[in-house]
Amino acid sequence: MLNSKEKFSKFYKKKLISIIESVSNREISKFIDALLSIKRQNNTIYFIGNGGSASTASHFVNDLSIGLKTLNRSFRAISLCDNQSIITAIANDYGYENIFSKQLSILLREGDMVVAISASGNSPNLIKAIELAKKMDAITVGITAFDGGRLKNMVDLLVHVPTDQGDYGPAEDVHMMLDHLISNYLMDAIDIE
Fold first, then answer.
1. Alpha-carbon torsion 66, 77, 191, 172, what sign?
2. According to the model, what pLDDT value does residue 187 have?
3. pLDDT tens by residue, 160-174
4. What is the mean pLDDT of the chain?
5. Which of 43, 27, 31 has the alpha carbon at shortest distance from 161?
6. What's the whole-model pTM score?
7. What are the E-state strand segments in 7-129?
C-alpha cells in the first residue's frame, strides 16, 4: 500500500495534520492559563515522562525556563527525568515505579504543578506521582494520547492527543508541537508579567 517513500511521506503528514486539528484548543488554552497562574504565584512546574515523553519533558522545561528569552518571562520549571544518579538510585533502592514520586515527596510544595506526559497514560511511575501530587494539593496536568489511559481521569487538566492505540510516532510528534505552540504563545503573551 505505502511502498514508496513519497507515498508514505504524504500519508504520514496528512495523518499528522488530522491529529493536530483534533486536539482541543480549549484544553490548550486552559493549560496556558494554568501555567500563567503558576508563574504569577512564583510556584514551580515539574515535568515527568518516560522514553520519548522524557525527552519532551526536558524540552518543555528548556523552552519554558530558557527559551522564552528574557528572565521576566521565564518559568520555574524542572524536568524530573534529567538527573540520572537520582533516578537510578531511586529505581535501585525503591523500584522504578517510584522514580518521580520520591523526588516530588522532597521537592513539591502546595500550589506547584506536575505535568505528566504519556502516550498511554498508564505508566505506574506517572500514576504514583500524580496520586502524590494530588495529596499534596498540587495542580496536576496530563498530556496524553491513545485513549488517555488512567491519567485521563486523574488529572485536574488534560491535553489529549487522540491517536490510535500504540501509534507513538504521531502522538509524540504532537506532544512536541504542543510545547512549541505554548512556548511561542508565552513568548508573545502580554499578560505574562
1. positive
2. 85
3. 999 999 999 999 999
4. 94
5. 27
6. 0.94
7. 44-49, 76-79, 113-118
Cell of 124: 505506574
39 φ/ψ angles, rounded to the nearest 5 degrees: -65, -45
Rounded to an integer, what distance in angstroms lies between the CA atom of residue 137 and that of residue 105? 12
Pairwise CA distance, residues 72 & 37, whole Å? 14
DSSP 8-state symbol, 160:
E
pLDDT band per the 50, 70, 90 thresholds, residue 7:
very high
Q: pLDDT at position 192, please?
A: 54
H-helix or E-strand spanning residue 186 = helix 168-188
Q: Which CATH class is domain 24-192?
A: alpha beta
- Taking only the tens place, the pLDDT of each residue in 68-88 is 876 577 899 999 999 999 999
**DSSP assignment, residue 147?**
T
Q: Is it the case that residue 159 has pLDDT exceeding 70?
A: yes
Share of the chain residues as helix, strand and coil, in percent rounded to the nearest 5: 60, 15, 30
Task: Provide φ and ψ at 140, rounded to 5°.
Answer: -115, 140
| Burial 110-138, CB ≥16 within 10 A → b, else e | eebbbbbbbbbbbbebbbbbbebbeeeeb
Nearest to 125 by CA among 78, 171, 87: 87
